[in-house]
Amino acid sequence: MACTVSPTLARRGRLGRHSGLAWLHREAGAPWFVVGQAGLYEALGMFVVAYVIIGMTVLSVCAISTNGALDAGGAYYMISRALGPEFGGSIGIMFFLANVCGSALYILGLVEAIVDIFGVPLGHTTGSSLQVLPRSYWYELLYGTALLLVCLLVCLVGASIYAKATFLIFLIVMLVLATVFVSFFVVGPTVVPLLLPDGNGSLAVNGSFTGFRLATLRSNLAAAYSEDYTTGRMMSFSIVFAVMFNGCTGIMAGSNMSGDLKRPSYSIPRGTIAAVLFTYVIYNLLAFTLCCTCDRTLLQKDYGFLRDINVWPPFVIIGIYSSTLSASMSNLIGASRILYALAKDDIFGEALAPAKKTSRGGNPWVAVILSWVVVQLVLFSGKLNTIAAIVTIFFLLVYATIDLACLALKWASAPNFRPTFQYFTWHTCLLGILGCSVMMFLISPIYASASVAFMLLLLLSLHCLSPSSSWGYISQALIFHQVRKYLLMLDVRKEHVKFWRPQMLLMVKNPRSSVQLISFINDLKKSGLYVLGHVELAELDSLPSDPLQTQADSWLLLVDRLNIKAFVNLTLADSVRHGVQQLLFISGLGGMRPNTIVLGFYDSAEPRDGLAPLPAFEGVEEMALRSFPPVRGAAAPRRLSPQEYVAVVADAVKMLRNVMLARAFEHYDKARAPAIDVWPLNLLRPDSARYADTCSLFLLQMACVLSMVRSWRRARLRLFLCVDTGARTRGQEDKLRQLLKELRIQAAIHTVPWDAVVALHWQKQQEQRARPAEAAMNFPGNATCISDEYLRAANRLILEQSPSPTIRFLYLPRPPADTSLYPSYLHQLELLTQGLGPTLLVHGVSAVTSTEL
């Protein structure tokens, strides 16, 4: 029966308002709040779902904590050692803030609960004999500061006194819980008068404790969502579930003390699982007994009714005060341990250096004080609901990241990930991630989105700071696992010319003299494989150890410094030719093997030190790059003869590798307006005017690939067509333009009359026919003998047509079959390309273009 009562009468009863005790009961996800709104059936289902989500994270915590020695930091330590410093640092900060805000949250709630009972009623100067505490914002801040100071003193003494204090509180709470269950059986039916706000007055209603009755149980089975009297908000399944879930987010309290436990790998799994199972059983028992003994009005309109039906009412108040103080203390000491671990790992450099200091007993007292200061600052806000939502979401984000760390370790399949706790799979990790993520957005979509954005901002900031660590990176293990899987799927038998891409092996003698060429080939690879190869001349039998091990780091540092995407492959051989053969045979893996080799040109030009103009190296970089020898002087002996150089080219052609010879790249300037000149005619065989053989098409393809690179997209691609005066040049040009159209290559065609140049060739051929003895010195497949005069004329023709492009592509003919002609072959190439600037001589052996869809 309900009736309207005056405000004066309301002061005699217990007015249903947003009191501290009511808030603590509600935000702790008290079973009577859940049962009162959702009914027994839905409440039991909520418990199952919530504890399944929490249980998945507990399994991940147990797995990680039993996979090696744990140090201070709890969840931060687990995540940072699994996912690296970026993830660890960002989650560490968020976990620190969650514990700090959690400590302030419980202090504020405890203050409101104390003031609710012992404070002077609002609007009055005096109260009952117990209501003696003044009430105002500043007084409540003072009470909170005093309670926080108690927590600080306990945490400053050390983990041992904290453990004793929490154990004492645990005994008190267990005693209170026992009296609650006893009260259900020994206390008789009771009517609890309630006063609810109703406009200008209050509404009096009666809630009933009936004792164990079947009718009461039946009335509480179904859901009956109503307005929450503490907030005035209409309840629903999602809201009640979110509130209930808040009471399940304390599973990391034990792991936060990982640095203070004697055997963390033993204690954390057992303690965490025991705590989860214990609370699950208690929640279900409370839900069932409440449904059997309390009517719906009592459950919905008074969250503190357990005081009225307890055998000794103060027991419940003592239990609430004790558990809340313990929770605040637990969060404060947890925050200090996380801050100490962050400082010790130097994640944020000198900013957290003071937090490293510890007492003689190992207690990080500076971290405790700093955490206390931050909690004190949070107390100034005094906004319980806002802090509660943020704390829960931060905790859920940490739990999801722990599941992610365990999932990554499981998927990486690293042999050293073998936790002694085996009751988990990647399915449980994934379910934990999904569950925590859904709960975050169910509780508060706005706060959840902001928290994720804040975590990503921290992660990116730490990534830019690049904190170094020796913990290992799970990303490398995952990449290895995936790359191995996809390499096995990359079947060379399924290769098709439509999907051909250049895969380059650049042979480098000394990186100091090859910086420009290394950067250029990085552009030319067009998302293909790029390998820097180097041959060290030595025999392993005469050495105490492999010298390449000490050089590898210097080469990798060079790759990072030049910002190129390349692998490094070093080999030891008795000659350069044998070393190049080794690299051509073994470089790459599966379907990713070099199909093109790039060599510097063999000439007498004095090399330049390309590393000197770069920004100064510092520290370790400087020491590492000093291992590269100085550039060779003009008079220094060469370790490669002209004969061996051409033999390397011939070997590559025999092994069906495309070949590029790069000349004068010490003059390469990428900053210039890009221009690409292509001469697809074999100038060493002027009697053949074919523009569509395999080599010419490969040359066109490589020029087109270069023009497709982002930094070269504005380049002018010019194609030079050599024609005889008086010949039908229009037809040749149309054929070439049609070929370019079919190949989808956009280039400007320039016709070049070269009668005077080719006349020198024919003159030499006629002279040779008059001397049959010299006619025998012919290249295979080339029935002509090229004169120096012709080559110089061809060189001048190229310079006249294109004085200074960024890069030139020229046709590279196949080396002669007669090895005695190798020096003559190299001499002809030297004359043809002399003074042309950056030039690529290109020889293709495989089809690389396609006109098919």
From TrEMBL:
<feature type="domain" description="SLC12A transporter C-terminal">
    <location>
        <begin position="517"/>
        <end position="602"/>
    </location>
</feature>
<keyword id="KW-1133">Transmembrane helix</keyword>
<dbReference type="InterPro" id="IPR004841">
    <property type="entry name" value="AA-permease/SLC12A_dom"/>
</dbReference>
<feature type="transmembrane region" description="Helical">
    <location>
        <begin position="141"/>
        <end position="162"/>
    </location>
</feature>
<feature type="transmembrane region" description="Helical">
    <location>
        <begin position="167"/>
        <end position="187"/>
    </location>
</feature>
<protein>
    <recommendedName>
        <fullName>Solute carrier family 12 member 9</fullName>
    </recommendedName>
</protein>
<keyword id="KW-0472">Membrane</keyword>
<feature type="transmembrane region" description="Helical">
    <location>
        <begin position="91"/>
        <end position="121"/>
    </location>
</feature>
<feature type="transmembrane region" description="Helical">
    <location>
        <begin position="48"/>
        <end position="70"/>
    </location>
</feature>
<feature type="transmembrane region" description="Helical">
    <location>
        <begin position="430"/>
        <end position="460"/>
    </location>
</feature>
<dbReference type="GO" id="GO:0055075">
    <property type="term" value="P:potassium ion homeostasis"/>
</dbReference>
<feature type="transmembrane region" description="Helical">
    <location>
        <begin position="274"/>
        <end position="299"/>
    </location>
</feature>
<feature type="transmembrane region" description="Helical">
    <location>
        <begin position="387"/>
        <end position="409"/>
    </location>
</feature>
<dbReference type="GO" id="GO:0055064">
    <property type="term" value="P:chloride ion homeostasis"/>
</dbReference>
<feature type="transmembrane region" description="Helical">
    <location>
        <begin position="364"/>
        <end position="381"/>
    </location>
</feature>
<dbReference type="InterPro" id="IPR004842">
    <property type="entry name" value="SLC12A_fam"/>
</dbReference>
<feature type="transmembrane region" description="Helical">
    <location>
        <begin position="234"/>
        <end position="253"/>
    </location>
</feature>
<keyword id="KW-0812">Transmembrane</keyword>
<dbReference type="Pfam" id="PF03522">
    <property type="entry name" value="SLC12"/>
</dbReference>
<dbReference type="GO" id="GO:0015379">
    <property type="term" value="F:potassium:chloride symporter activity"/>
</dbReference>
<dbReference type="GO" id="GO:0016020">
    <property type="term" value="C:membrane"/>
</dbReference>
<dbReference type="Pfam" id="PF00324">
    <property type="entry name" value="AA_permease"/>
</dbReference>
<dbReference type="GO" id="GO:0006884">
    <property type="term" value="P:cell volume homeostasis"/>
</dbReference>
<feature type="domain" description="Amino acid permease/ SLC12A">
    <location>
        <begin position="34"/>
        <end position="505"/>
    </location>
</feature>
<dbReference type="InterPro" id="IPR018491">
    <property type="entry name" value="SLC12_C"/>
</dbReference>
<feature type="transmembrane region" description="Helical">
    <location>
        <begin position="311"/>
        <end position="334"/>
    </location>
</feature>
